[in-house]
Amino acid sequence: MRRIYHRFPQSVDLDFELNRPFREVLNCIARMHDTHTTTRGADGLVKERILFQIADERTQFQDLDTLLPLAEKVSEVADFRVELQRTLLTPEKRLPVSENAFFLRIVDKGRLTECYVAKDGHHGDLDAMNLRRILKGACE
Fold first, then answer.
1. What does the alpha-carbon distance between residue 15 and residue 131 come to, in Å, rounded to a whole number?
2. Cβ contact 131:115 at 8 Å
3. Residue 14 forms beta bridges with which residues?
4. How many angstroms separate the CA atoms of 120 and 129, rounded?
5. pTM here?
6. Alpha-carbon gap, residue 75 to 12, rounded angstroms
7. Is the terminal CB of the chain with fewer CB neighbours within 10 Å at N or C?
8. Partner residues linked to 39 by β-bridges
9. What is d(CA 90, CA 64) in angstroms, rounded to the nearest whole number?
């Protein structure tokens, strides 16, 4: 079943291909959902978390956990809302550094998967190229 969001932006910031079949990319996205990495920055430890939501009934997004396994329930096209959250970890508390949101559309092209990325809003310090790097690193 196609998972399309009817308000997906008409103009995208970036389009690129992943050298993996559609089902493999869906499985990769499912593995990446709700994961985090911790890196040392200038101010201390920074936790980077990634969350995926998938289009539901063309008008909204639902948490990815409710639709697993994706490869069995999604075909042809899938729209996602991706949140990349960065939090500074201090001994006293956790301080939000930035939150970036993107729309991601993946399209089945046989042995390849076409990806379209558009930033949702103007907040955050990441752009579509950062999301491309993350997806290519995890899925290829």
1. 11
2. no
3. 117
4. 14
5. 0.90
6. 22
7. N
8. 46
9. 30
